[in-house]
Structure formats: C-alpha cells, structure tokens
Amino acid sequence: MERNRPGGGLYVLAFSVALAVYAGSAGGVVLHPNPTPGGPELEVPAGQRPSDDVVGRWSSSASVVALSPRHIITTAHGGGGVGSSVTIGGQSYQVGWYYRHPTADLRVAVLTDLGEEPDLQDYVDIYRGSDEDTQTFVLGGYGVGRGDPLQTFYNDQWVTYGYEWGEGGNDTLRWGSNRIDPSPGFDLFAVWDGPGIAAAVPYEAIPADHDSGAGWFLDDGGEWKLAGLTQAVERTGESWYRNSGNPELPDPDEMYAVRVSTNAYWVDMALDGPLAGDFNTDGTVNITDLGALASNWQASGPGVNWSDGDVNHDGKVNITDLGAVASNWKHEYAPPAAATMGGGQPVPEPGTLALLAVGAAALALRRRRKG
Ligand SMILES: [Ca+2]
Ligand SMILES: [Ca+2]
Ligand SMILES: [Ca+2]
To answer: Ice-binding protein C-terminal domain location, by residue (predicted)?
Structure first.
C-alpha cells in the first residue's frame, strides 16, 4: 500500500487560529466511542496514565510536557514565541525564552512568571532506552478530539470508517493509548486500529489538531517517562480506521512522534542550559552563533529569543551578549557529570583579545549580510 512519509504530504499538526475560535469544547486525542449508547468516554483511566498536570498547552496552538519545575518541551513547529502563554498544572505562565534543536522538531522552553518563579509540582523524566518499538504507550494531549462519524453505505447499511475532528480549541486534555510499531528510518510510529482488530489496544487513539507536542509516555518500571512528542498524522480534518470504499478492509491512519531517547543528550543540555552564546544549541560556540547574533545586532523587543543572540534574556542583542560569545568562543558544552570527573573546563582565552576578534568578525558578517 502506498503510504505518505513525513515531509512528503503528511499533515503536520500545526498552529491553527481558526479552530481555536470555534465554540464548543470537544477535546483531546481522537478516541473510539463507547459501543454502549450513552456510556462513558473510553479514556485511559486515572492511575493508568501520568498526572494531568504533566501535560499543558502553549497558547492556542500546541500541547507541551513538563520536564522540570520550570521547563517544558514541545515540537518546534507548533508555533508560539517568547512572551506567549503556557497553561499547565492549573496555572498560566509566560515563555521566557526557548531553545530550538538544531535539526530535530524539538524545543525546550523556560517558563517565567510575572510574580514568583514557576515551580511545577508534576513533571516527568525522558525515556532513555532504545526498546520503544512494540511497547504500548499512553498519549495525552489538548487536541480537538472526535467529531461526527464518517460513514459509507455498504451491504445495505451505513458503516462508520472514521471520524471528523472536533470543532473545539485546545481547552480539554484527553488520554488515549496505542502501540508503537517498528518503522525503520523514522522516529516513533503507530497506526489507529479499529475496534475489534487484534492489533488494537484498549483506549486506541490518534492525535488531532493542537496535539502537536503532546506526549507519548512509556511505563518504565512503574514511572512514566516521555518517549515521544506528537509530530504528524496521515490525514487532516478526519481520522480513518477502515477503507472508505470497502469498510470490510482495515485502513488505519498513521501517526508520528519525534523520538526523545535519541535526542536525550540535547534535552539534558537544554535543561542544564547551553553554553552562553550557543544560540543554535549544537553544543559549541562558534561562527554560526556569531552569525545569529550579528544578523540580530541591536534588535530589541519582547519577542527576542535566545536563538536571536540574547544571552541574558533582557530582550536586547547588544555588547553584553557579544561579550558572552567572546568568553566562550570555541568552547564545547560538557555535561555536569563529566565536569566533576576531572574533565575540567576549557581554559578561557584572554577576554579582551577574543572580544575584539569576535566583534570585528561580527561587524564583518553584518556588512556582508547588508551588502
Ligand atoms: Ca494501533
Ligand atoms: Ca552553536
Ligand atoms: Ca541581551
């Protein structure tokens, strides 16, 4: 069967203002309905899933997962900048700044508060194993959830082959489940099987709009760990589990998540804080970072981010930030554990000399970009 692949027509669960303003409050991931008329929603029960306070939402766009008292992680494509709001654990915070992964669809944001420091009580560690495939995971997200059934007339009766997405915004958290299927060459992968299919798990679910950045959690010896972040689904606006032309045939929609375990080093670095001046968070302070700073030289405003060259988070890119680049010039990030094992820190270069060299290079870069 011909399948779409990420980057080749898959629907990325992106920011959607239009959906956010609709009335109504369907929510969360798309779950199959209870076959008992009037029965409760078939949602993963409390006690078999992480705490509700672990998953939040980034303004009216994506879902997020808490990793520390003040750090959240989500996909990079989900939208929302510095100063936008994140609601998690029953509280709203501001995004102070965020770190964007140099290649993967990931970013870690640091929350700030207008009054006291954020102190999230519930958060999870990341999954560090490489045995995700075939494991059953729990999926939590603030997506739009299930809407009306999609039906086709077949063998003298109406048969449901899928569901439209709901029309709510991202105001409701819902918990589903699924099984990770092996998919060589891709990150985490699963399909939305129909009820009664042998491969289906209890509370079989698929993400919908606003579930970008929603967590795929694995039970790691009794502790919930973050294994993936929802990135894309096969179809937009609706989810299928049977073939629309012949509903006797299963046709489960695909879903994808960014794998966290293979990016563990980067996530740890983002939580620890990258080197001052490492604006693209690749672990080194070099000409690429200087270029980022140079192209935003003297920029100021509430939306200025770390990636723009703002080391000290004052909303300005200026000589203070350039000084940090100079002090760490050509330095490489070392995890805290390595530093205490006698690895030592790189010897700083003579500050003034480096600052002069870096400053001259910044100006040269800037002139070249202008010209
Ligand atoms: Ca499945
Ligand atoms: Ca860098
Ligand atoms: Ca600054």
So the answer is: 346-368
- Quote the CA–CA distance of 367 and 25 in Å, as a whole number: 52
Nearest ligand by distance to the CA of 135: 1
DSSP string, 237-280: SEEESB-SS-TTSB-PPEEEEEESGGGHHHHHHHHH-PPTT-TT
The DSSP result for 307-330, as a single string, is GGT-TT-SSB-SHHHHHHHHHTTT
The region of weakest confidence among 1-5, 119-123, 172-176, 237-241 is 1-5
Q: For residue 224, how far is the Cα from the chain centroid?
A: 17
Q: What is the pLDDT of residues 250-283, one digit of tens each?
A: 999 999 999 999 999 999 999 999 999 999 999 9
Q: How far is the CA of 290 from the centre of ligand 3 (A)?
A: 14
**Structural domains of the chain ordered from first start:** 11-265 (2.40.10.120), 274-370 (1.10.1330.10)
What is the band of 169 on the pLDDT scale with cuts at 50, 70, 90? confident
Cα Rg of the chain, angstroms: 23
